[in-house]
Amino acid sequence: MGVVPPVGRGPLMASIAFRSQDDPWVVARWAFDGLLCHARDALSAHPRLLHELDAAQARERLNLAGLSEEDGRLIAMALAGAADTVRRLEQGSDDPLTISWLDALADLKRRLGQAHP
To answer: How much is the pTM?
Structure first.
């Protein structure tokens, strides 16, 4: 299948911040949007958190450090699940862009686990 960025959205970047002293996780905007889309499924029972994802998408930045501990934990769990979903969908690809995306998702999962164990 492979990852294909939408036309006109390729060079834009978006990020997830964990703690103020940590470097943010930065990916292409199309990748960020796709990840948030998958995370929404896990948060459908939490309209307030869906609003946080909408705001993050508009800002091109999700700041987990700026949320309450519980909200941050719930969003982190949804993002980790979304990363697993995307990794399953793209597993086995030999496309360099997809491989890079899978590596970025593995890094995101590692960082989420450190920030919200």
So the answer is: 0.83
